[in-house]
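Quick one:
INPUT:
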């Protein structure tokens, strides 16, 4: 029961305390005078009566009423109902005004005689009955105004003594004794708020969305301010907002009406709900963080800085829908054609309850299952309950949800838990809803109609709660009469009441209450139902990962393997497990599985097991958030203290020392939740024991089905609470003590546990309680625990002890503080006594200190552990003579931009791999195993020759396996290899530095003799330490044979000769300088005059000379008929060329060979003069002659600048003195003339001097092909030289010049002999009136194009020379600028643009980056093709090939060509070599290609060492792959003409690899001269110390070629004397696969010794007997791992191998593969000759454009990517019915050639007679039954290519034996006939005999049945 009203107060205007027109109120009277004990009188009532301030008004205003709410100090609410009316009084201002001196003008105007002051009657109550209060106060006012007969004291006395029940639903009728009567309806259950219609009103005013915003804001603790001009509405709105928050109660500042004087309350920092009159709107403007709801305007304003978390979806949407259906039911049917007649919303009162029902439904959804997350930690003396927030959010899968997080953290929810947590109490509507209707809510949530039904049911209950009975019309309350309100003028002021009278009433009532028996209301307490457990419905929320069953199985299997010690299996499963552990189910499964392996709280593992378990735990923990919402960390907590391993005697390491790196352990809430759940379990156990001892357990065991569900802790608690009052005092205290000690012991336990997880293994490292988490690494490796760490984690351990203590104590302190905070909090909450708490505080530091001591021992031991989980380091196989410089350094090979190895493109992830890097004298080798365990058994090898290293840069790598960032290196090699390595943490950084230094030393030795090719097999171990330098180093240089003998003859023998030994590392520098001196001295000492042939060649030096003759060039010159040494000695004049020995001492030109071909007529002295005009003295020499046209190919360097001027000197240069330059240029001209006159075509026409003679047909060996080709050359020229604008040089002076040109045509040609008057060359030419402008038209002339004229006239250039020049000079555009050329010489300069060395270098760099990118990129501008294009490598190849093809065409046309570009050793060499390769089939054989490279590249001095940056000196110049470019061009030609080369593509790759590898001496040094100096050129055969070390790459290739056909091209079938003309456009060029391929299984395949050895190693390991059944012969071939040529050999190689192995089995000596092959070819050839009538090719293999043979046995052959069908027609009837097609094969022939190469297409073939059409005879035809195409084809004869007809087998209905018909072939038995019936017709066939016919029928039948 409660008083209806606590106090009655009269408040009036205080006339004494006016301040500047603002008055104050004061309490005139209050009843009772004395405060009630249970509710003190609230302060500040006078402020709340006039919230806008006390003011006097000129006119009387109507009475007003509102209810304000005040909150007292114990947060009880007092409802102040204020009834205000106005009383007149004489204006107090008048009196004062006269006294004041300065009268305010305005006031004076307003002031009236009478003003009105407010007076308020206030009723203060703790109950909220607005209407009752309104009526009561109204009645008092009425009694006063109307002057009723009842004394006011009586009415007020009755009001104050009226007592009503709080709840229970009863109606109470009251009267105040003034003839009135009111019924007060109490709610049935007072825990539900009473809202009247305020909620509906609120929604009407603000709308659904706005109210939802306010609702969420209130729940998430924001500040909310209501504005309205009506006070009552403010109160209602606040009441409505609180009503929809049920079952949460608002516990912050709540002031529905805030007086203006207290407005500063709005700037309080705490949340609030406050109402303020709109009058003060302006003052609310500057509030920045307050949400303002304007009730009158219907708006809600949310400031920018406030973020309101809204309800989670889909709840928000469904709530909105439900609300809209309540408030605006018409919305749903607004579009219906036939809307129902009445869909009015319910009455306001009902609507109000419906809205509240929606919110109840909402909370039931949000809080469903909350009771399962309550921890009861004390039952007696009263329940202490805690809510496990993380578990609740985790099971609801709402951890990410902002709204719920904030709500659960809020004060309101804390109140909710403490109020609704206790398990034994009265329950209400919400308890029922959340426990029993969850299932219904969940099923209906998506169907708005069903939701509405539920809402209506709930609304009905709510309504019933407020209005249990039908409304009773018994109210009778007087209101003031109309006239009294109007005629209030006469109204007397409210009287002063008699306090004594009122007090008497009150005392009387109090006395009565005492005598009355106490009202005992039986409270219905009961056990609160918990509802369905959470676990049931989470999974249906869809948060379970797909196919989780499979994942769980993987986790279970892995754990089983680990405990069964099947480590390899476990390792394979590991990555899958780590991936699976991202899912919650798998993590839970892991904890359950591990639990099963723990016996008596302990599980001892070995190191490997321990490591795996720890990795899994880490992975599990790291995917958990720090809240541990799924309780994974909680489940692991007991496990980390159970799993351990023995480290040494008595030292055990537990898993917890390896899983400390997770945030969850530093989260106080986690520990609290854990602690509470453990306490709950123990207390539950405590009461279970007391109740029924052991019976419970037995019954559990018997009842296997587990239907006897365990009693939950809450149920137990509620039972205990029910019994509590019945227990005796002792029993009660005993139970309290037991519980308290349980909590205490748990607290000790937890102090221990926390110290385990918070103290790091290495306590000197303070990594505890840091704010950062671990980042999501895939799995956290604990290498710092399980491995010996080379000083990474443990360095500071051996510091001085003082330090160490300080540091560890620092760790200890922070841990102690953390544990203390925890203990304080939990013990206070769970009511532990103070003594116990003190005891705990003293224990904690001891616990921590003890633990630190045990950890020290563990840490020491764990450092000694061998690194277990790292794979064993594999040793690489080394070449003979190759030695390790630095032994294995453990590294990780990281994947780079090539995706094949990473598994991204399918296939296994071979990289990253873990292994070691080895530095040898020859190579850099990585060997290891992939970190992905699925491929853990494979070996990954990546290596490259150290000499090919082009770039090395430091990188830092973060490995996916480790949390550390490692330092690493990125090494790029020009063999198109890239190694990104990260040093393992065990590799000290200084060691990595040493590694880099050695690498550099090996890469750039001081001298070529430091390269592997020289050091191999000679020196002992390369010593890595530096010794002191040897001071007196004697001269060790030694020049071998040739130079030596030359010096003997000269007689100046000053060189001390000693046996050469290579200098050691230190002496390199001095060694170099000696060499230099030597070079200089040689050139100074040699006296040129004494060097005549007779003087040089003496009998003693025959050997030397024979060596020279043996040289490649010499052999080649003899082959080409360019002269032999003997005839140059006898100087026979009939040969046009001779071999000159002018350079035998390398004095004329250092970089040329000793023997050179020069025109017969030029003496050596001239040569010595000429050479000065050319760069590097590289004067023009002949290197090849076309055997058909006798045109020669010359090579030289470009002219010196002075040479150019001399050669094409401009006419106006004054030459006063015949200078040396003049005579030289004359010599030069003579030299060129001599070359021209050596050509047969010239000598024939030289007799005629006229122009007509010049164009004589003799000039070309006049066959039609040349005429055809002519324009082609012109076109080529144009392409090569670029467009006309590019050509340098100018036309001469206008028309005059043109005329001169024309005149000159008729002038006789000056003969060569008359051509040297003393003034020199240019004079004579000028005299003859020639045009000396350099004519830019060279190419256009050839093309027969007109050249544009400056004056626009017709071009006469056509007359000039419609014939070829005798000699074309291919020159560099840039050098020929400004030169003048005369149009009548017989040579012509073709200016072209050459790519200079810099371009090649840059292009190559970009090409490497494109083919071997260092990192993957998603940028579309960085795609492979784009990078390839930007590198311009292809366009460089195109340029070189284009020039080469032009030269070939010119030579074929009979003109000689001189290639004279740059220094004559880069592009010149490329062009000259390619020209020879294209023109001369000899160079396409092994011997020829070797000769070509030796002659043009080695002898003619391509600077291999310089361009390859092989030594320190050339390091700065960088790597320029001129030779590689040449090989690539050869590769392009090879692709276009695969049958013209004897060697395979592999041969080219082999050379490309080894020309940079420095394994052989062949490609070292820059010229023959340098090689002779070092004695490399002529190494005596017997001198080889170690036969296994090959010094020349050619010898190596020869040897290898004898053993295996790897270099041989089976498709080699050259046409006689074929000149190749490849297409050179970029679209025809392919990227060489040498740049792209890689074999990770064995490294590059170009060192054959290694390949053989590796195979042998694998064979030696005996296979374990495999019981798993028959093994498949098939295996997977991975593109970047296996060597394709080895795994998938071509057919011929395979057959040859099989043959060898079979012969070996038979014990025969197997013959060489080449002999076998040649034999086969020979027999083939004879067969072909016998069979074919017109034999047009003696070769076995058809060239690609002659696909003329049908064959029964084809072989499809693929050699490193070149697919083409070749033919081993072993029993082939070759007939050449189709003529050879010239040029390229048409697509159809290409198709047929592929189509027919597969022998299995032809299932059956043979001859059948087929009956023709009517009256046609039977004809024999060759039939082929093709299963693949499912058809029967027939041909004229067996060799025929053209199919005569096809019978589709799909149409065949049957095949049956037939009878002989008319005209059938004679004497054939009857059974040989059969018929084939198709849907269209019947075919009659006849075979040779019945057997054959049967075979045919069977074959066709089987084809039909197969289909």
């Amino acid at each position: 029961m409660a008083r209806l009203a606590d106090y009655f107060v009269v408040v009036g205007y205080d006339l004494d305390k006016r301040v500047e027109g603002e008055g104050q109120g004061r309490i005139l009277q209050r009843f009772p005078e004395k405060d009630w004990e249970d509710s003190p009188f609230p302060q500040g009532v006078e402020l709340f009566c006039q919230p806008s301030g006390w003011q006097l008004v000129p006119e009387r205003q109507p009475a007003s009423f509102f209810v304000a709410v005040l909150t007292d100090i114990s947060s009880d609410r007092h409802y102040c109902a204020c009834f205000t009316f106005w009383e007149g009084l004489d204006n107090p201002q008048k009196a004062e005004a006269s006294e004041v001196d300065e009268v305010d003008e305005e006031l004076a105007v307003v002031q009236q005689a009478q003003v009105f002051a407010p007076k308020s009657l206030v009723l203060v109550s703790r109950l909220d009955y607005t209407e009752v209060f309104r009526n009561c106060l109204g009645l008092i006012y009425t009694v006063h105004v109307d002057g009723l007969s009842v004394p006011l004291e009586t009415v007020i006395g009755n009001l104050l003594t009226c007592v009503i029940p709080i709840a229970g639903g009863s109606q109470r009728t009251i009267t105040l004794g003034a003839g009135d009567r009111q019924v007060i309806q109490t709610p049935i259950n007072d825990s539900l708020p009473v809202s009247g219609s305020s909620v509906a009103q609120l929604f009407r005013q603000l709308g659904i969305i706005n109210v939802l915003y306010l609702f969420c804001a209130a729940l998430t603790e924001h500040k909310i301010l209501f504005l309205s001009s009506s006070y009552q509405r403010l109160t209602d709105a606040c009441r409505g907002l609180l009503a929809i928050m049920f079952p949460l109660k608002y516990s912050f500042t709540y002031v529905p009406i805030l007086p203006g004087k207290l407005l500063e309350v709005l700037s309080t920092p705490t949340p609030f709900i406050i109402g303020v009159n709109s009058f003060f709107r302006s003052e609310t403007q500057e509030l920045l963080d307050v949400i303002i709801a304007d009730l009158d305007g219907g708006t809600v304003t949310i400031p920018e800085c406030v973020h309101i978390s809204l309800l989670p979806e889909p709840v928000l949407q469904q709530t909105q829908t439900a609300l809209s259906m309540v408030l605006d039911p018409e919305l749903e049917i607004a579009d219906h054609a036939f809307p129902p007649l009445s869909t009015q919303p319910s009455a306001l009162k009902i609507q109000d309850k419906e809205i509240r029902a929606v919110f109840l439904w909402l909370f039931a959804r949000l809080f469903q299952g909350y009771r399962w997350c309550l921890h009861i930690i004390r039952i007696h003396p009263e329940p202490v309950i805690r809510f496990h927030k993380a578990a609740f959010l985790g099971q609801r899968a709402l951890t990410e949800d902002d709204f719920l997080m904030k709500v659960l953290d809020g004060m309101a929810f804390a109140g909710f838990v403490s109020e609704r947590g206790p398990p034994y109490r009265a329950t209400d509507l919400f308890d029922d809803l959340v426990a029993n209707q969850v299932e219904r809510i969940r099923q209906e949530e998506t169907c708005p109609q069903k939701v509405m039904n539920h809402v209506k049911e709930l609304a009905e209950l709510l309504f019933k709660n407020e209005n249990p009975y039908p409304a009773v019309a018994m109210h009778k309350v007087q209101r003031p009469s109309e006239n009294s309100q109007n005629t209030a003028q006469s109204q007397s002021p409210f009287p002063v009441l008699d306090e004594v009278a009122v007090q008497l009433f009150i005392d009387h009532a109090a006395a009565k209450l005492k005598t009355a028996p106490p009202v005992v209301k039986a409270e219905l307490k009961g056990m609160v139902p918990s509802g369905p457990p959470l676990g049931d419905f989470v999974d249906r929320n869809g948060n379970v990962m797909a196919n989780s069953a499979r994942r769980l199985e993987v986790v279970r299997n892995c754990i089983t393997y680990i405990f069964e010690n099947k480590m390899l299996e476990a390792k394979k499963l590991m990555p899958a497990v780590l991936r699976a552990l991202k899912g919650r189910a798998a993590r839970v499964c892991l904890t359950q599985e591990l639990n099963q392996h723990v016996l008596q709280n302990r599980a001892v593992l070995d190191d490997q097991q321990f490591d795996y378990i720890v990795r899994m735990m880490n992975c599990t923990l790291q995917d958990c958030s720090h809240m541990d919402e799924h309780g994974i960390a909680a489940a692991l907590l007991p496990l980390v203290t159970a799993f351990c391993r023995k480290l040494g005697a008595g030292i055990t390491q537990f898993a917890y020392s390896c899983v400390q790196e997770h945030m969850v352990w530093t989260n106080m809430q986690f520990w609290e939740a854990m602690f509470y759940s453990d306490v709950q379990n123990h207390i539950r156990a405590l009461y279970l024991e007391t109740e029924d001892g052991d019976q419970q357990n037995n019954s559990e065991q018997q009842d296997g089905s587990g239907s006897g569900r365990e009693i939950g802790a809450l149920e137990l608690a509620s039972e205990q609470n029910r019994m509590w009052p019945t227990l005796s005092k002792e029993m009660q205290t005993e139970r309290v003590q037991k519980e308290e000690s349980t909590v205490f012991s748990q607290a000790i336990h937890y102090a221990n546990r926390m110290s385990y997880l918070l103290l790091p293994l290495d306590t000197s490292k303070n990594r505890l309680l840091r704010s950062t988490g671990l980042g999501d690494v895939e799995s956290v490796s604990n290498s710092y625990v399980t491995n010996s760490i080379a000083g990474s984690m443990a360095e500071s351990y051996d510091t001085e002890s003082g330090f160490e203590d300080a540091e560890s104590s620092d760790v200890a302190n922070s841990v102690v503080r953390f544990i203390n905070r925890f203990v304080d909090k939990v013990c206070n909450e769970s009511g532990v006594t103070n003594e116990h708490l003190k005891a705990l505080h003293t224990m904690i530091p001891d616990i921590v200190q003890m633990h630190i001591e045990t950890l020290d021992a563990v840490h020491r031991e764990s450092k000694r552990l061998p690194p277990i989980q790292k794979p064993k380091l594999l040793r690489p196989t080394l070449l003979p003579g190759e030695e390790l410089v630095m032994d294995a350094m453990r590294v990780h090979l990281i994947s780079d931009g090539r995706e094949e190895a990473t598994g991204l493109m399918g296939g296994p992830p071979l990289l990253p791999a873990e292994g070691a890097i080895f530095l040898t004298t020859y190579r850099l080798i990585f060997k290891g195993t992939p970190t992905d365990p699925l491929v853990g058994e494979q070996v990954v090898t990546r290596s490259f020759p150290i000499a090919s290293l082009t770039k090395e840069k430091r990188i830092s790598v973060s490995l996916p396996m480790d949390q550390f960032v490692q330092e690493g290196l990125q090494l790029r090699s020009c063999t198109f290899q890239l190694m990104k390595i990260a040093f393992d943490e065990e590799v000290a950084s200084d060691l990595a530095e040493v590694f880099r230094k050695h690498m550099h030393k090996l890469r750039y030795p001081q001298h070529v003799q430091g390269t592997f090719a020289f050091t191999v097999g000679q020196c002992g171990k390369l010593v890595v330490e530096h010794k002191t330098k040897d001071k007196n180093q004697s001269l060790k240089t030694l020049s071998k044979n040739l130079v030596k003998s030359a010096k003997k003859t000269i007689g100046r023998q000053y060189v001390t000769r000693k046996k050469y030994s290579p200098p050691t590392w230190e002496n390199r520098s001095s060694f170099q300088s000696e060499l230099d001196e030597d070079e200089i001295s040689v050139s100074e000492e040699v006296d040129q005059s004494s060097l005549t042939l007779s003087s040089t060649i003496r009998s003693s030096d025959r050997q030397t000379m024979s060596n020279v003759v043996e040289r490649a060039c010499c052999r080649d010159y003899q082959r080409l008929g360019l002269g032999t040494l003997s005839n140059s000695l006898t100087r026979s004049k009939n040969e046009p060329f001779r071999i000159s020995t002018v350079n035998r001492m390398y004095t004329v030109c250092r970089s040329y060979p000793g023997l050179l071909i020069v025109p017969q007529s030029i003496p050596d002295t001239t040569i010595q003069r000429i050479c000065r005009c050319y760069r590097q003295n590289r004067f023009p020499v002949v290197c090849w002659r076309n055997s058909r046209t006798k045109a020669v190919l010359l090579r030289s360097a470009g002219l010196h600048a002075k040479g150019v001027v001399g050669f094409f000197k401009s006419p106006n240069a004054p030459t006063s003195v015949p200078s040396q330059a003049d005579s030289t240029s004359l010599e030069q001209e003579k030299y060129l003339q001599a070359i021209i006159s050596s050509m047969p075509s010239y000598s024939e026409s030289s007799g005629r001097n006229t122009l007509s003679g010049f164009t004589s047909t003799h000039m070309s060996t006049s066959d039609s092909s040349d005429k055809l080709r002519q324009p082609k050359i012109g076109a080529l020229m144009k392409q090569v030289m670029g467009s006309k604008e590019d050509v340098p040089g100018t036309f001469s002076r206008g028309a005059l010049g043109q005329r001169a040109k024309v005149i000159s045509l008729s002038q006789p040609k000056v003969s060569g002999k008359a051509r040297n008057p003393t003034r020199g060359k240019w004079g004579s030419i000028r005299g003859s009136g020639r045009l000396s402008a350099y004519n830019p038209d060279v190419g256009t002339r050839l093309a027969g194009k007109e050249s544009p004229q400056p004056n626009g006239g017709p071009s006469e250039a056509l007359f000039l020379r419609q014939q070829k020049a005798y000699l074309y000079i291919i020159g560099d555009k840039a050098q020929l600028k400004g030169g003048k050329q005369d149009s009548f010489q017989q040579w012509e300069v073709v200016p072209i643009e050459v790519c200079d060395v810099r371009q090649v270098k840059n292009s190559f760099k970009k090409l490497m980056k494109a083919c071997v990118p260092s990192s993957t990129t998603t940028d579309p501008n960085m795609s492979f093709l784009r990078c390839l294009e930007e590198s311009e490598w292809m366009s460089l190849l195109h340029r070189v090939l284009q020039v080469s093809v032009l030269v070939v065409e010119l030579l074929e046309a009979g003109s000689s060509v001189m290639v004279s570009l740059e220094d004559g050793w880069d592009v010149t060499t490329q062009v000259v070599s390619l020209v020879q390769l294209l023109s001369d089939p000899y160079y396409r054989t092994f011997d020829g290609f070797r000769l070509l490279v030796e002659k043009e590249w080695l002898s003619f001095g391509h600077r291999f060492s310089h361009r390859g940056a092989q030594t320190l000196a050339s390091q700065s110049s960088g790597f320029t792959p001129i030779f590689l470019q040449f090989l690539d061009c050869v590769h392009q030609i090879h692709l276009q003409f695969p049958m013209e080369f004897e060697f395979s593509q592999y041969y080219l790759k082999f050379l490309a690899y080894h020309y940079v590898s420095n394994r052989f001496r062949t490609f070292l040094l820059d010229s023959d001269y340098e090689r002779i100096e070092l004695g490399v050129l002529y190494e005596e055969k017997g001198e080889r110390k170690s036969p296994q070390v090959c010094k020349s790459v050619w010898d190596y290739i020869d040897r290898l070629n004898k053993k295996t056909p790897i270099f041989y091209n089976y498709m080699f079938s050259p046409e006689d004397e074929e000149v190749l003309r490849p297409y050179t456009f970029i679209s025809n060029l392919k990227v060489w696969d040498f740049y792209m391929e890689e074999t990770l299984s064995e490294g590059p395949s170009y060192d054959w010794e290694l390949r053989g050895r590796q195979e042998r190693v694998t064979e030696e390991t005996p296979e374990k007997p495999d019981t798993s059944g028959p093994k498949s012969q098939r295996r997977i071939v991975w593109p970047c791992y296996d060597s394709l040529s080895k795994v998938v050999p071509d057919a011929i190689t395979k057959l040859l191998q099989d043959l060898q192995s079979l012969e070996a089995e038979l014990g025969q000596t197997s013959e060489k593969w080449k002999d076998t092959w040649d034999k086969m070819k020979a027999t083939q050839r004879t067969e072909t000759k016998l069979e074919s009538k017109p034999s047009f090719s003696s070769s076995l293999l058809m060239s690609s454009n002659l696909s003329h043979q049908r064959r029964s046995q084809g072989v499809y052959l693929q050699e490193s990517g070149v697919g083409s069908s070749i033919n081993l027609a072993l029993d082939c009837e070759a007939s050449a019915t189709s003529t050879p097609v010239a040029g390229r094969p048409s697509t159809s022939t290409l198709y047929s050639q592929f189509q027919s190469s597969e022998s299995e297409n032809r299932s059956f073939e043979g001859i059948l007679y087929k009956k023709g059409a009517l009256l046609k005879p039977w004809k024999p035809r060759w039939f082929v039954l093709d299963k693949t195409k499912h058809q029967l084809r027939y041909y004229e004869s067996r060799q025929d290519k053209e199919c005569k007809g096809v019978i589709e087998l799909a149409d065949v209905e049957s095949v049956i034996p037939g009878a002989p018909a008319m005209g059938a072939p004679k004497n054939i038995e009857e059974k040989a006939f059969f018929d084939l019936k198709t849907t269209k017709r019947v075919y009659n066939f006849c075979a040779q005999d019945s057997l054959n016919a049967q075979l045919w029928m069977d074959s066709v039948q089987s084809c039909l049945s197969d289909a």
